[in-house]
Structures are given as structure tokens and as C-alpha cells.
């Protein structure tokens, strides 16, 4: 969740204010993005919009949260890999022995998105919410092949 909020804070500022500037050491506002950086950000944003539009969602409306979900997952997985390197043995959980520790990471992450929507709430979420519906928040991560957990 921390990674999600950090990603959202940065992304929301960039998208909603269209600001590519920050204060320098003397307090003056200066542009810190190169033209190439701006183009990369726009291209990646467009990719997210198209990806979520394919699910019948409004990828533009959910863009900030979608980037935050994917970026937060990337941060969490990077931290997990760092933790994993320091472990002496491969941890196995009872009744889940067939899964690798990496698979267990994604099962744990995916399980937070396993919810059942009350009647009408899913349609409302698709039409109005800033967040994509829960199943798409997990299964839409292009960086990782998610296991089936629901």
C-alpha cells in the first residue's frame, strides 16, 4: 500500500496539474523533465489507458490509480526480492508446498483483490470510480504473470 500511495502522489501531480517542474535549490520553479522524459511518460500513460479501455473501463479516469497499483506492486516485488536474497532457505507453507516463494508473493497480493460486489456496485465502480474494479487491479498488471487466486 505504501508503494501505491507514493506512486499516486507523484503521478497525480504530474497528470492532474500537467506540471513537469519543481523548485530548485534557490526556490525557483524549474523544468526538470527533458522532452524525451515527457514523451516516455505520455506514451506509458497512453499504454495504461488503452490497456484498461480494453476491459470496458475508462482508462483515462482510472489512470492515476492504475499507475499507482502497477508501480506499487513493482516496488513491493523489488523489496520482496531483496528480502528473499537474505533468506537461508526456501520457505514452504503447509498445504501450499507446491508453490514457489515467488508464487506465494503474488497469491498474497492477489488475494486482497478477491471481493464479491453487492448488486449494482460493480456497475457503479465501472462507470464512476477512480479505481478500476478489484479484479482488474490485480489481473491487469503487465509486469507479472498473476496466479489464479480467486
UniProtKB/TrEMBL annotation:
GO CC annotations, alphabetized: plasma membrane
Gene3D superfamilies listed in its UniProt record: Collagenase (Catalytic Domain)
GO BP terms, alphabetized: protein processing
Source taxon at top rank: Eukaryota
InterPro entries the record matches: MetalloPept_cat_dom_sf, Peptidase_M13, Peptidase_M13_C
Domain Peptidase M13 C-terminal: 17-139
Gene Ontology molecular functions: metalloendopeptidase activity
Signal peptide positions (record): none
Protein name: Endothelin-converting enzyme homolog
Amino acid at each position: 500500500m505504501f508503494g501505491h500511495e507514493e506512486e499516486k502522489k507523484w503521478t497525480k501531480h504530474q497528470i492532474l496539474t500537467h506540471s513537469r517542474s519543481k523548485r530548485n535549490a534557490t526556490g525557483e520553479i524549474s523544468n526538470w523533465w527533458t522532452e524525451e522524459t515527457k514523451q516516455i511518460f505520455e506514451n506509458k500513460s497512453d499504454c495504461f489507458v488503452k490497456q484498461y479501455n480494453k476491459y470496458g473501463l475508462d482508462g483515462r479516469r482510472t489512470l492515476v490509480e492504475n499507475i499507482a497499483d502497477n508501480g506499487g506492486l513493482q516496488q513491493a516485488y523489488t523489496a520482496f526480492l531483496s528480502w528473499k536474497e537474505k533468506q537461508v532457505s526456501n520457505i514452504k507453507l503447509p498445504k501450499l508446498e507446491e508453490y514457489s516463494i515467488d508464487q506465494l508473493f503474488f497469491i498474497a497480493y492477489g488475494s486482497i483483490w478477491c471481493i464479491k460486489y453487492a448488486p449494482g456496485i460493480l456497475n457503479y465502480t465501472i462507470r464512476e470510480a477512480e479505481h478500476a474494479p478489484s479484479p482488474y487491479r490485480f489481473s491487469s498488471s503487465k509486469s507479472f504473470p498473476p496466479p489464479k487466486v480467486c
